[in-house]
Amino acid sequence: MGFIQRDALKTMVISYLGIGLGYLNKAILFILILSTEEIGLINLIFIVGLLFAHFANFGSIYTIWKFFPYFNNREKNHFGFIKLMLIVVSVGILLISAITLLLRPYIEGIYLLHSPLFSEYFIWMIPIGISYVLFLVFEIYLRGLFKNLLAVVVHEIVLRVLLTFLLVLLGVGVIDFEQLVIFHSLTYALPTIILILYLKKIGQLQFSIPSIQISRRFKKILLHFSAVNYVNNLGYVLVTSLDLLIVSQMLGLNAAGVYSTMVFFAGAILVPYKSLHRVSVSLVSDYWKQKDMTKMQDLYVKFSSVSLVIGLVFFLFIWLNVDPLFSLLPPDFIAGKWIFFFLMIGKLFDMYCGLNGSILVTSKKYKYDIYFTLLLTLLVFGLNLFLIPIYGAIGAAISTLSALFLYNAIRLYFVAYHYKMFPFTKKQVPIILLGVLTLLTGSFTIHMVSHPIAQIVVQSLLVVILFLVPLFYLKLEVETVGFIEKILKKTKNVLGLR
Question: How far apart are CA 423 and CA 355, in angstroms?
């Protein structure tokens, strides 16, 4: 995993810079400048924009991901493969835009009672959707070329700097809230434009119209794969979006503002996982092409183990300090503590299950994932309708946790049954036990001191002493320990230490 670690480290550093900007925006400026209703509106427009993007991609994202290694030939312009995918996406954008405009009165009517502000600004999700679906196409294309960094920079840094700038302008009165919504939606076009210019610069995007040199038989395979994964991906996106959509519809934008903020906070735990995943998924496609199941299994286990360690470290540092951290937030957000907990547990389990989804959707049995996703979509929809009226927004978080647990459990079993691959090993058990021990101990030590800063210091030291130190010195996870040792060695060399 050497080159994966190097690329993952770079993308992780960039991602954490983006997270820092994100927290400046959503944990500070949003809360200082916007009402919870306005926060809920902006986040709801973004989520609906993402849904538009996934409706409009027509399955092309996974198709590029799986099949690009078979067409990767710069001299022959990849046989027109990327052109074919862009045609598919263009048709998707036009069709979904038309359907959206036709259904606009109905969609706005659903939210009119509890979230009337959304009805006023609903249309501004379309620029986000169009920009984001094109960004995804070019980002996956660049992943296939093993060029990951630029897409991370423009998505994690550039977008958030622009949002910071817009929030400052709103704060000083240069623009009003309506202009903020409009400009925020339009800024999503910039990362896409940057990727297009970069691909053009390196000669990987021809604006001329070469013939598509793909046989009719292979086109049918591509289109069939796109159709199957289109349905499957839509189901997954709906599963991860239904909570906020239903909270907004049933409880209003104020509850949506709190809930979406907790979703953002919980997302911090996924940053290193996404960095590893971004680099690893291209290898999965290559291993299928080479039929190298030994390397696939090795990557599957290592990815799960590293993700488990990283996930537990972040979960323990964040959750054991949750009370002093939440004490810094306005009173409206205090109710989000248990929303935050259930969301983090769900994301931690999702990380631990590793590459199960990537392996399944790029395998020959990819079509089976549709049935899993459709079943899960119905289940999550039902859980949200049942739990939200009883537990409020916490019910939505429990529904999301249940969805992630069930979805991953099904995929784990399927990959294990058909391909004899499993990511969990006995070596991971001591890591989990250390995490549980640290969590239980921290639930008692939090009451030893009363000052928030002192609590953070005590709890953080506890994680280091009870979890990180044994992990490192007992070498409970070889990849992670080896990676840390390399970083320490390089740091010593830079500092001139032996």
Answer: 8
Region of 477 please: left (phi>0), alpha (psi -120 to 50) or beta: beta
pTM recorded for the entire structure: 0.77
Judge contact between 69 and 81, C-beta under 8 A: no
For 242-256, letters b (16+ CB in 10 Å) and e give bbbbbbbbbbbbbbb
- CB-CB contact of 342 with 400 (8 Å): yes
CB neighbour list of residue 254: distance below 8 Å, 6 or more residues apart = 35, 36, 37, 40, 332
Q: Which of 90, 85, 94 is nearest to 212 (CA)?
A: 85
What are 253's two structure tokens?
A: 């934008």
Q: How far apart are CA 213 and CA 215, in angstroms?
A: 7
Tell me the Cα Rg of the chain: 23
- What size, in residues, is the chain? 498
The DSSP letter of residue 157 is I
CB 309, CB 471: distance < 8 Å: yes
Backbone torsion region of residue 189, taken as left when φ is above 0, otherwise alpha when ψ lies between -120 and 50, otherwise beta: alpha
| Contacting residues for 229 by C-beta, under 8 A, at least 6 apart | 59, 61, 62, 63, 361, 366, 369
Mean pLDDT of the chain: 82
Nearest-angstrom CA–CA distance, 259 and 90: 33
pLDDT digits (tens, 9 = 90+) for 294-327: 888 988 988 888 889 988 998 999 999 988 888 8
In this model, does residue 57 exceed pLDDT 60? yes
Residue carrying structure tokens 């995804």: 136
Q: Which amino acid is located at 331 in the chain?
A: P
Q: Pull the structure tokens for residue 266.
A: 């919980």
